[in-house]
Amino acid sequence: MEQQGKKGFAIASMILGIASCVLAWWGIAFGVISLVCAVVGLILAIQAKKSYTAIGQKNGMATAGLILSIIGIVLSIIGIIACGVCVATANKIANDPETMNSINSALNEISSSASSK
Predict the structure, then answer these.
(1) Global pTM value
(2) Separation of alpha carbons 80 and 17, rounded Å
(3) Which residues contact 74 (CB under 8 A, 6 or more apart)?
(4) DSSP track, the chain
(5) How does pLDDT run along the chain (117 residues), one tens digit per residue?
């Protein structure tokens, strides 16, 4: 019975690691959810690895969950930072009339050159 719980932790950590790796690419809201999934997956993977090591069994699934959770944490942090930088840059551009005029004139030139071809 106790052995099944360890396997459940390993499976759950692997599923949460995979989910965190996938969700990390879908913006800041999903990035936060991904980070939470990755941290929970990391905790479960560590518990499963300790349990498997204590009874002397192989723990490949727990190791996979651990690695995926670590990757998920890194991807989530990178995604959250990237989204924050994009939002800050967009706010700065939107609040600078000179930059907005430059962007508008560049877009007008592009559209006029594309329509003349």
Answers:
(1) 0.76
(2) 17
(3) none
(4) -HHHHHHHHHHHHHHHHHHHHHHTTSHHHHHHHHHHHHHHHHHHHHHHHHHHHHHT---HHHHHHHHHHHHHHHHHHHHHHHHHHHHHHHHHHHT-HHHHHHHHHHHHHHHHHHHH-
(5) 455 557 889 999 999 999 999 998 887 888 899 999 999 999 999 999 998 888 888 888 999 999 999 999 999 999 999 988 988 888 888 888 888 888 888 888 888 887 776
